[in-house]
Amino acid sequence: MYNKITFLLAAAFLFGCLQKKNSTVGVAASVNDVFLTETVLRGALAANPDIRANEHINAWINNELLYQAALGMGVPLDIKLKSTINKISRHLTIKTYIDLVCSGSLKITNQEIKEYYNKNKEQFLRHRLAARINHFIVSDKKEATKIKSILAKHKHGTKRDELFINHRVFSDIVIKGTLNEALDKLIFTKRKKKKLVGPLGLKNKFHLVEILETFPKGSPLGVDLVYDEIYQRLLNKKLASKKEEVLDSLRNEAEIAVNNKTIK
Questions:
Q1: What's the CATH code, domain 130-215?
Q2: Are 219 and 121 in contact (CB under 8 A)?
Q3: How far apart are CA 216 and CA 177, in angstroms?
Q4: What is the crossing angle of helices 53-73 and 2-15, to 10°?
Q5: Band (235; pLDDT cuts 50, 70, 90)
Q6: How does pLDDT run across 187-233, given as a tens digit for each residue?
Q7: Where are the domains of the chain?
Q8: Please, are residues 230 and 117 in contact by the beta-carbon 8 Å criterion?
């Protein structure tokens, strides 16, 4: 909800910068002599299809009403506010420039991610007990019991494969304390190498869980689980290095002077 409101406010600000028009052709909305064009509205809808057209329009109208009222009252733009706007504008301009300069030149390979992971495994440890499971959800208890029997007898093969084709199955790694309390207890209660638990009845459904593997607290997370985080770390590092290269080049080309008297 917060992101949605933020987007609407940002969109409203951009819409408020539209030029005044004398024609109503292609106009989606207007406030006094300021218009929101259909072209701009379509662009906003394409950028965020989750927000409906009337929400975009209402946000723009509300923003424009308040902005025109502020101008009518002669509200001054505070010097501090002007400075803040200028800093944000400069920051976004610099970021866009760096992105353009680095576009296509920064690549993170799977080998780099693997090497980073192996050197920094201590940074990627589990804080809670976890388990890799196959979670079957069915409407009938007899069917759940039948599935349990097939899973117990067939670790591989066609009969087992058919279960995953014909039933609703959730396959993932789950963390203790993040599930329904009854399911959490079913999966994580200590038992002697018990790999099939359930069926458990919950809200007219029956839950059967096949526990494939358990991971104790303090065990390393798999590289697949931290891949995106490592990718971002390596990308940020390369971006910082590239930024220094760009700055060195710009320093060599620019005329820079510093008044040493102002440095204490």
A1: 3.10.50
A2: no
A3: 14
A4: 60
A5: confident
A6: 887 665 668 887 888 888 889 888 888 888 888 888 888 899 999 89
A7: 2-75, 130-215
A8: yes
